[in-house]
Design a protein that fits this description.
Structural class: alpha+beta
Number of strands: 7
Strand order of the largest sheet: 1-2-3-6-7
Shape: globular
CATH architecture of one domain: Alpha-Beta Complex
Distance between the termini: 38 Å
Low-confidence stretches: none
Bound molecules: zinc ion
CATH class of one domain: Alpha Beta
C-alpha cells in the first residue's frame, strides 16, 4: 500500500503500517488499541490533541482543510473557540522567532516508511530540513551546532505544543520525567530517524500554552534515540502479532474502552476498588 496525505490516517493504512502513535496506544492498552484499529472503539480526541492538530495544520498549509474536518473548533456564531484563538497566538509567537521559523521552513509533512524489527512502520515528518538550511542555521545561530553538528546532512524537526516545559509525574516510574521521555518523543525520534534513513538529528520545536507563551528548541542525543528505537524494536513484534490476530490483547482494565466492555464475573470488597489515576 502506497501512503499519501489523503490515506495516511485511514484504517487501511493503520492496519498495513504501525506508527509511533499506534505503538504508544498499544503501550497504554492493547485491547483499546486493537479495538480502535478495527473501528470498534473511537477514542475521544481531546481538546489538547485538537489544539496541537490546529497548529500542525497551520504550519503545513492545511488549516482550511483542518477547519472543514473539525467544525468543533468554531462557536455557533462562526468565530473560533477560546482554545483555538490561543492556538493562533501560539502560532504567532512561533512565527515571530527567527530560529523557530527556520526550523519549520523545511519540506512539510514528509511521509516516511520502512521496516523496524521486520514490521512495516510509517511516519510523517513535520519539517525535513536540507543540508543547506542546516548550515545556514548553524552559521546564524552557533548555539545550534551541538544539535545539528558540523556537517549535518539535514535534520528532522517535529513541532509540539505543550502545556508547559516542566517534568511530568509518571505513575509507572514513581518519579517525574522530562516531558520528552514521558510522552515518548525520544522513541518517536528513534523511529523517524530509522525510517528517514540518513542518520539525521531529531529536533523538537516546542511552544507552550502558558499565559506567557514560551518557546524552546530541543534535540534528543543519538544515544537516547537509539535507546528509544530499542524500546520499539522490543515491544512492536508483540503488538504486530496482536494486530494479525495471532495473540490476544491484554486489557488494562482502566481505560474507557475497558470500562465500557467490562464483563462482571465476581463480587469484590468495596475497599478493593482501585482509585483512578490522577492526571
Ligand atoms: Zn484498557
Amino acid at each position: 500500500m502506497t501512503l499519501t496525505s489523503e490515506n495516511y490516517y485511514s484504517q487501511d493504512a493503520n492496519m498495513a503500517y504501525m506508527s509511533v502513535s499506534q505503538f504508544k496506544a498499544f503501550d497504554r492498552c492493547e485491547a483499546a488499541a486493537l479495538a480502535t484499529l478495527r473501528g470498534e472503539y473511537y477514542p475521544a480526541s481531546s481538546t489538547a490533541t485538537l489544539v496541537g492538530g490546529y497548529v500542525d495544520a497551520w504550519f503545513s498549509g492545511e488549516l482550511s482543510l483542518f477547519q472543514d474536518q473539525h467544525p468543533e473548533v468554531f462557536k455557533r456564531d462562526g468565530t473560533l473557540k477560546a482554545e483555538y484563538i490561543k492556538a493562533q497566538d501560539i502560532i504567532s509567537r512561533m512565527e515571530s522567532d527567527e530560529l523557530f521559523r527556520l526550523l519549520m521552513s523545511g519540506r512539510k509533512q514528509v511521509i516516511v516508511t520502512g521496516y523496524i524489527a521486520g514490521i512495516p512502520f510509517k511516519g510523517k515528518i513535520d519539517s525535513l530540513l536540507d543540508a543547506e538550511t542546516c548550515a545556514e542555521i548553524v552559521r546564524r545561530f552557533p548555539g545550534t551546532r551541538a544539535a545539528l553538528g558540523d556537517a549535518a546532512r539535514g535534520a528532522i524537526v517535529d513541532q509540539k505544543v505543550m502545556r508547559d516545559l516542566q517534568p511530568v509525574w509518571s505513575d509507572e516510574d514513581h518519579c517525574k520525567l522530562p516531558f520528552v521521555e514521558f510522552y515518548g518523543y525520544d522513541l518517536q525520534g528513534g523511529v523517524y530517524q530509522a525510517l528517514e534513513g540518513h542518520d539525521l538529528p531529531f529536533i523538537l520545536a516546542v511552544g507552550t500554552k502558558e499565559t506567557a507563551i514560551d518557546l524552546t528548541a530541543l534535540y534528543v542525543s543519538k544515544a537516547d534515540l537509539t535507546a528509544g528505537l530499542y524500546q520499539v524494536e522490543d515491544r512492536a513484534p508483540r503488538y504486530q502479532a496482536i494486530k494479525e490476530g495471532k495473540l490476544l490483547p491484554r486489557r488494562c482494565e482502566r481505560c474507557d474502552h475497558c470500562k465500557a466492555t467490562r464483563k462482571l464475573s465476581s463480587i469484590i470488597d468495596y475497599r478493593d476498588l482501585v482509585p483512578e489515576d490522577e492526571d
